[in-house]
Design a protein that fits this description.
By secondary structure, this protein is of the alpha+beta class. It contains four helices and three strands.
């Protein structure tokens, strides 16, 4: 009987240790992404459809992207780079010039010469 209780105790201890190790690696960040309209919103948000991104929302009025992601799977700079590849300048990277020039006219926001590197 004593051995049986000890086994249950060990199993409970092991389960507790495993549960404590599974801490969340999700974080939420916000940063500016230049753009103009709902079509921009669709393009910007869909550029973040990758493994590790849990939730994303780009606000058309404030130009702020709020994104929740798993830091064990993707880093913030990688997300910002994906957005830049889709043609949109952001706090981390300048949008790809060729992709930007291929955006529909309503999505071509005013770029500052200092933004272009």
């Amino acid at each position: 009987m004593k051995t049986k209780n000890l086994n249950y105790l060990l199993i409970l201890l092991l389960a507790t240790i495993i549960a404590c190790k599974n801490t969340s690696t999700e974080t939420t960040s916000s940063f500016k992404v230049w753009g103009n309209c709902e079509q921009c919103k669709s393009t910007i948000e869909s550029s973040c459809n990758v493994n590790g991104v849990v939730q994303k929302d780009w606000n058309v009025d404030s130009k702020i992207m709020t994104i929740t992601f798993d830091t064990a799977k993707i880093k913030l700079h990688a997300i910002q780079k994906l957005i830049a590849k889709s043609g949109y300048d952001n706090d981390g990277f300048i949008g790809d010039n060729t992709t930007y020039s291929n955006l529909v006219e309503c999505c071509q926001y005013d770029r500052k010469p200092t933004d272009l590197k």
